C-alpha cells in the first residue's frame, strides 16, 4: 500500500476505505461502521496503525433520487368559460367538458381541476324567457359533466335573487388560488378566465415564487391576467376558434397585435 493515500469516510453508508490520492482507487475492501461517530473511531484507529499521508476525508454517495412529479392545478371560471363557448358555437352546439379538457391537456399536463360556476335558477319567470331557458339547459349539460371528471373540485356559487347575477364564484377562485399557493398544494397554477378582476390574485401568487399560466379562449381574453402570468396562451379548440373568428367582428375590439406582444413578452418572464 502506497503512503500517498488518505482515509475516506462515506457519510451516507458509513463505509471507511483507504484511497490512493492520485487515482482515487481504494485499497482492499471498505470497512462498515454503525454510524458516523463509529466510522470516525475506525478511521482514527486505521490512521494510528498505518502510514496515512493525507489524513481523513469525507464524502457522500451519488444517490439519484426519483424525480418528483410537478403538481399542476387548473383553476377554471366555469361560468365565464361556458359563456364564451356559447358565443362561439351557439346554444345546442357547445362542445362537452371532457372534449375541452382534452384540448387543454395538449398544452398543459395538469393533474387537478378546480371548477367554479353557478346555475341560473329555473324559476317560472326564467323559463318563460327563451334565451334564459336555453342558458339553463346548456348549464345543466355542461356543468353536470364536471363532477364526473377525475380529480375535480367543483365549487357551486349562487345567483342574486334580485339581479340574477352570479355571486361568489370569482372571489372563491381568487382566494383558493392564493390559499393553495400558501399551503404549497401546487407547483404551477393555471387560470382559465377572461375576468380581469382575477389579475391581482395571479400577481400575488407569482410574488410567492410560483409559476402561474393563463389559458384563454379567444373571446374571453384578459390582457390584465396575461400580463401578470408567467405564460399566457390562447387555445384554438380543434381549429374551430380561428375559423369562427377569421372573418367575424366577434373579437369585440381585441387588438391582436397587443395580444401577440404580451404573449411573446410573457414567454420570457
Structure, described:
The strands form three sheets. The protein has a six-stranded parallel beta sheet with strand order 7-6-5-10-11-12. The chain is built from ten helices and twelve strands. It is an alpha/beta fold and 269 residues long. The two termini are 57 Å apart. It is rod-shaped. Helix content is 38%, strand content 22%. The protein has helices at residues 36-49, 78-89, 97-104, 124-128, 130-145, 169-182, 199-207, 223-228, 240-245, 256-267; strands spanning 5-10, 15-20, 26-32, 56-59, 72-77, 112-117, 152-156, 158-159, 166-167, 188-192, 211-216, 231-234.
Supply database-style keywords.
four-stranded mixed β-sheet; Rossmann fold; 269 residues; six-stranded parallel β-sheet; 10 helices; alpha/beta
Quick overview of this protein structure:
The protein has 269 residues and is an alpha/beta fold. The protein contains ten helices and twelve strands.
Secondary structure layout:
Layout: E1 5-10, E2 15-20, E3 26-32, H1 36-49, E4 56-59, E5 72-77, H2 78-89, H3 97-104, E6 112-117, H4 124-128, H5 130-145, E7 152-156, E8 158-159, E9 166-167, H6 169-182, E10 188-192, H7 199-207, E11 211-216, H8 223-228, E12 231-234, H9 240-245, H10 256-267
Parallel strand pairs: 1-4, 5-6, 5-10, 6-7, 10-11, 11-12
Antiparallel strand pairs: 1-2, 2-3, 8-9
Helix pairs in contact: 6-7
Mean pLDDT: 83
Radius of gyration: 30 Å
Proportion of beta-strand residues: 15-25%
Structural class: alpha/beta
Our count of helices gives 10
